[in-house]
Amino acid sequence: MFPIGDDNQGRSTTPVVVYAIIAINFAVFLFLQQAGMTPQGEKFTYGYAVIPYEITTGKDLNEPMLVPGLPPVIDPRTGRREQPIIPEAPGPNPIYLTLLTSMFMHGGWLHILGNMLYLWIFGDNIEDNFGHVKFLVFYLICGLVAAFAQIAADPNSIIPSLGASGAIAGVLGAYLVMFPRNRVRNVVFLGFFITTVELPAIIVLGFWIVLQFVNQYTSSFEHAQGGGVAYMAHIGGFISGLILCFVFRRSRKAAG
């Protein structure tokens, strides 16, 4: 089940902040990260993503580092088994700015397309209710809370964390509270058949956050340095959105 649209009845403004955030994310991915296709783009990605160890110690890791806890991998060029290495690179000064820069970076095309689709679907109604400036503040706060949640889960990790999903999870949390009955269109894959179905937001987003908790629980049995999806960032962002929507929303427009 994959969301592709929602009910926008009652929306009265153009979501200019949502559009601007989407544009900035694609600009950063294409022009600064260079879609992960060049050494310079890779250097930017590793330098400006959030690394928990850098935030907790204030030290900028700028040299390649071995990843503890992971089994050796085979180097396709030499055929030798080697320990995984992260090509750490210099970041901003102060290094804490990565808490902000990482919100506008992504690890690949599927990562950015999925995140921006969710923001496009669910962000417009929230921006319409909050107003443009308040929505931007809300979005950034949720992203910061998400980053700190992921750092708290493994403060000594040297695995980079990046992406807008933590901030977008905050948007999903607010949407669940404010528009639980809105119909969300979903693509459903049934073997070789593909169809669409409309479900209430409370079911779609409720299933999404439950899945994040389940994935975080199962991933806790694996070594934290293994990397992968930042489920704690999703959980932290979502919970912050649930709470902050009561501060930012206009009650006269709240649905549900």
What does the model show?
With 256 residues, this protein is mainly α. The protein is built from 9 helices and 7 strands. The longest helix has 22 residues. The chain is globular and about 60 Å long. The relative contact order is 0.17. The model has no long low-confidence stretch (mean pLDDT 90).
Taken as a percent bin, the fraction of beta residues is 5-15%
Q: Quick one: overall form?
A: globular
N-to-C order of helices and strands: EHHHEEEEHHHHEEHH
User: How would you characterize the largest beta sheet?
Assistant: 3 strands, antiparallel
Structural class of the helices, strands and pairings?
mainly alpha
Distance between the termini: 23 Å
Q: Based on DSSP secondary structure assignment, what is the total number of beta strands?
A: 7
Q: Biggest sheet, strands in spatial order?
A: 1-6-7
**Averaging pLDDT over every residue, what do you get?**
90
Helical amount? 40-55%
**Count of alpha/pi helices:** 9
Low-confidence stretches: none
Layout: helices, strands, pairs:
Layout: E1 2-6, H1 16-32, H2 39-48, H3 52-57, E2 65-66, E3 73-74, E4 81-82, E5 85-86, H4 98-101, H5 109-130, H6 132-153, H7 165-178, E6 183-190, E7 193-200, H8 201-219, H9 231-248
Antiparallel strand pairs: 1-6, 2-5, 3-4, 6-7
Helix pairs in contact: 1-5, 5-6, 5-7, 6-7, 6-9, 7-8, 7-9, 8-9
